[in-house]
Amino acid sequence: MSDIRVGVIGATGAVGREMLSLIQERRFPAREVRVFASERSAGMTIPFAGGDLIVEVPSEEVFGDLDLALFSAGGRVSRAFARAASRAGCMVVDNSSAFRMEDDVPLVVPEINAAALDGHRNLVANPNCTTIVNALAVAPLHDAFRLRRMVVASYQAASGAGAAGLAELMGGTRGHLEGDESPPEVFAAPLPFNVVPQIGAVGEDGGTDEEAKMGTETRKILGVPDLEVVCTCVRVPVARAHGVASTLWFERPVDMKRARAALDQAPGIRWHDLPTPRAASARDEVLVGRLRAVPFDERALTLFAVGDQVRKGAALNALQIAERLIADR
Ligand SMILES: NC(=O)c1ccc[n+]([C@@H]2O[C@H](COP(=O)([O-])OP(=O)(O)OC[C@H]3O[C@@H](n4cnc5c(N)ncnc54)[C@H](OP(=O)(O)O)[C@@H]3O)[C@@H](O)[C@H]2O)c1
């Protein structure tokens, strides 16, 4: 079926560019692809499938001429257009956090909860990138032993803060080595040769939005409303791919052989003896390793997972959702 007219909103950004390359790589059934960004980029061209696409500025009217809109231009743009687009009959997959927790919006990682797409109302949310990486490793273990609690520390790449984040890491690293580093604009503290244990603003409870998402979104994806979650999100000077160190407590005692078998058989993840961001970059699968029992609790285990957050954490997951929406049309 190649009658799909696709719009990529945020096409000049880190996620948008990845979407355009995945549309080609996966031979996504698009009859037409249109690209949208801010006024700053209007009229510029983006190479695509041997030609050039001209960047447009989104308006409500354009969505009547699209069958599928892939939003990755931040929450403000999604809030401005996504609901109206879905009402106009355009299927929307949104990468921002604007609608993730709305009751009528499925929050989907296809390998885990594709069934949540049943009865969708043309608007589906892509989960937070760190949540996707962690959830893919955790879901098969939840199926085996029933997850009750998790304590997570993330190791998040600079490109998680978009094209500007990656540029700040690269430019800052050069500046630091040459003794001429500018103050950070994207990150809360200088990222080169550092780790920054704060992503986004700190709220009244001392936590950040990024940390809260790990709890709220994982509960919705796994369908465990009382799941106990503590998360510390940390930015690390890595270009691409987010890591998570995740310690999990279950209802049932853990059989480590069965845990490993569950991870080996699960879709979307791959066992790796030493999962690193560089090993995970540009790969579809999330890499999982460092699986260990917790010596003082037979109902717990701990692991490390890492996944390309621009790809599986955003663009790829969105396209996989879109492929299912199209197949079910
Ligand atoms: N980066 C990641 O790893 C990641 C992972 C998961 C989810 N996300 C989410 O995906 C979204 C995009 O992230 P990103 O990392 O790709 O950001 P980015 O690199 O900063 O790109 C942002 C994109 O949004 C466009 N944009 C900004 N304001 C706009 C407006 N008023 N109208 C139309 N387009 C506008 C930008 O266009 P201009 O170039 O013209 O400014 C650019 O194309 C965000 O919601 C983010 O939270 C990102």
Descriptive labels:
single chain, 329 residues, alpha/beta, Rossmann fold, Dihydrodipicolinate Reductase, domain 2, 2 domains, seven-stranded mixed sheet, six-stranded mixed sheet, 9 helices, 13 strands, binds NADP nicotinamide-adenine-dinucleotide phosphate
3D architecture notes:
By secondary structure, this protein is of the alpha/beta class. The chain folds into two domains: about 5-125 and about 315-325, Rossmann fold; about 130-310, Dihydrodipicolinate Reductase, domain 2 (2-Layer Sandwich). It has nine helices and 13 strands. The chain has helices at about 15-25, 75-85, 110-115, 130-145, 160-175, 210-220, 255-265, 275-280, 310-325, and strands spanning about 5-10, 30-35, 45-50, 50-55, 70, 90-95, 125, 145-155, 230, 240-250, 270, 285-295, 295-305. The strands form two sheets. Strands 3-4-2-1-5-6-7 form a seven-stranded mixed sheet, sandwiched between helices. The chain has a six-stranded mixed sheet with strand order 9-8-10-13-12-11. β12 (about 285-295) and β13 form a beta hairpin. α1 (about 15-25) crosses α9 (about 310-325), α4 packs across α6 (about 210-220) and α4 (about 130-145) crosses α7 (about 255-265). The longest helix is centred in the middle third of the chain and has 17 residues, at about 130-145. The mean pLDDT is about 95. NADP nicotinamide-adenine-dinucleotide phosphate binds near residues 10, 13, 16, 37 and 96.
Across the major sheet, the strand order is 3-4-2-1-5-6-7
CATH class descriptor of the largest domain: Alpha Beta
| Mean pLDDT metric | 97
What is the structural class?
A: alpha/beta
Biggest β-sheet description: 7 strands, mixed
CATH architecture descriptor text of the largest domain:
2-Layer Sandwich
- Work out the helix count: 9
Instruction: Tell me the strand percentage band.
Output: 15-25%
Query: What's the CATH H-level superfamily name of the largest domain?
Result: Dihydrodipicolinate Reductase, domain 2
Secondary structure tally: strands? 13
